[in-house]
Design goal:
Number of domains of chain A: 2
Largest sheet of chain A: 6 strands, parallel
CATH architecture of the largest domain in chain A: 3-Layer(aba) Sandwich
Strand content of chain A: 25-35%
CATH class of chain B: Alpha Beta
Radius of gyration of chain B: 14 Å
Largest interface: A-B, 22 and 20 residues
CATH architecture of chain B: 3-Layer(aba) Sandwich
CATH class of the largest domain in chain A: Alpha Beta
CATH superfamily of chain B: NAD(P)-binding Rossmann-like Domain
Helix content of chain A: 25-40%
Strand order of the largest sheet of chain A: 3-2-1-4-5-6
Strand content of chain B: 15-25%
CATH topology of chain B: Rossmann fold
Shape of chain A: elongated
Shape of chain B: globular
Structural class of chain B: alpha/beta
Oligomer: heterodimer
Number of domains of chain B: 1
Number of strands of chain A: 11
Number of helices of chain A: 6
Order of helices and strands of chain B: EHEHEHEHEEH
Order of helices and strands of chain A: EHEEHEHEHEHEEEEEH
Structural class of chain A: alpha/beta
Number of helices of chain B: 5
């Protein structure tokens, strides 16, 4: 894969090193040309000094041939401008931008740019680890705002209908396994003792789901 | 009289805002240089504190009922994001943006919500190349 990485701080450096080690063609764009010295010896990728929002600099990085563009500078506006330029002007199929200040999140999504939010991801993960050790997510979406969680249903819920587990905008049930046999439930499906349920849950509602499963909320 | 928002700090943005205010327009400044509200107030300008790339800041500067926005900060990426928000999010009829690095000039078009651009270096160069 040909990947262009804008911003070579800790994350950019680690990502460039990783892609290079996996045999991908990496081009790094970085304002500070002294950073080039930090790239590992044996790095086969290219280093382009300059501002990644500038078309000439992106073109030096052969942006039009890139399959992926990742904007990782500490400047959210520069990340969104470069990401949108890579996507719309140079038709790069996969574009990801880092989001430092969560306050800029709505702007990124308004402009249709996929983000990795350092702060939001870290906060969601820490809250999850501290409060919800029993609910290990199978899959997380976005920056951890939505999770897929599997859990054995407690005995006290046997005989209740799926519809009773549903909390609009917070908790949904996407799958039920009975004795290893999986199906997509209907609202009227009755839970049986020993069922394993896949919940789709908002990060902020994990506590609610847990107290549900603990029997401390009904 | 027009309602105008000027985004930027000391120098060009402040001078443009002051001149427009004197010309009888209602001007709000979103100051990108912190701590100068009192200086702006002295010049009779309404100053709004905050990050201009956040819609709530533009809204508190009156973006919903503004006829003109001037993105005049010293950062091209800030000016582009502000211009696009002004046009797409608030539907401001006329968006004028400052270009700081002439290498970025061709980004400043309608894909970023920019109706007109001001590029000081390009302006000077074009004057120099005029026939005598």
């Amino acid at each position: 894969m040909q990947v262009v990485i804008m911003g070579c701080g800790r994350t950019g450096l680690a990502l460039a090193t990783r892609f290079d080690a996996e045999g991908d063609q990496v081009t790094v764009i970085e304002l500070d040309d002294e950073v080039q010295a930090r790239l590992p010896s044996g790095f086969r990728g290219r280093f382009i000094p300059g501002n990644g929002i500038t078309p000439r600099v992106l073109e030096q990085a052969a942006i039009a041939d890139a399959e992926a563009f990742v904007a990782l500078t500490p400047n959210d506006s520069a990340n969104i401008v470069a990401a949108r330029t890579a996507r719309d002007r140079y038709r790069v199929p996969r574009v990801i931008a880092r989001l430092h200040d969560p306050v800029h999140g709505p702007v990124y999504s308004e402009f249709g740019i996929a983000t990795v939010g350092s702060v939001q991801t870290t906060v969601n993960r820490i809250v999850q680890m501290l409060h919800h050790l029993t609910l290990e997510p199978h899959q997380t979406f976005g920056n951890g705002e939505t999770l897929l969680v599997r859990s054995r249903v407690p005995d006290y819920l046997a005989g209740r209908e799926i519809a009773e587990l549903y909390v609009p905008g917070e908790i949904g049930v996407v799958e039920v396994s009975t004795a290893g046999h999986s199906r997509i439930p209907e609202p009227s499906t009755q839970l049986r003792q020993g069922d394993v349920v896949s919940f789709i849950v908002a990060a902020g509602s994990l506590g609610r789901l847990r107290s549900f499963l603990d029997g401390t909320w009904s | 009289m027009m309602r105008i928002i000027v985004v930027g700090g000391a120098g060009l943005a402040e001078q443009v805002a002051t001149a427009l205010e004197l010309a009888g327009h209602e001007v709000s400044v979103i100051d990108t240089d912190p701590g100068r509200e009192s200086a702006l107030a002295k010049a009779g300008l309404r100053a709004v504190r905050g990050d201009p790339t956040v819609p709530a800041t533009l809204e508190s500067a009156g973006a919903h009922r503004t006829e003109v926005l001037i993105a005049g900060s010293r950062s091209d990426e800030t000016n582009l994001v502000v211009s696009l928000l002004a046009k797409k999010h608030f539907g401001i009829p006329r968006v004028i943006s400052r270009v700081n690095d002439s290498a970025n000039e061709d980004l400043f078009d309608d894909t970023w919500g920019v109706d007109a651009l001001v590029s000081p270096s390009t302006a000077v160069v074009s004057l120099v190349s005029l026939p005598a």
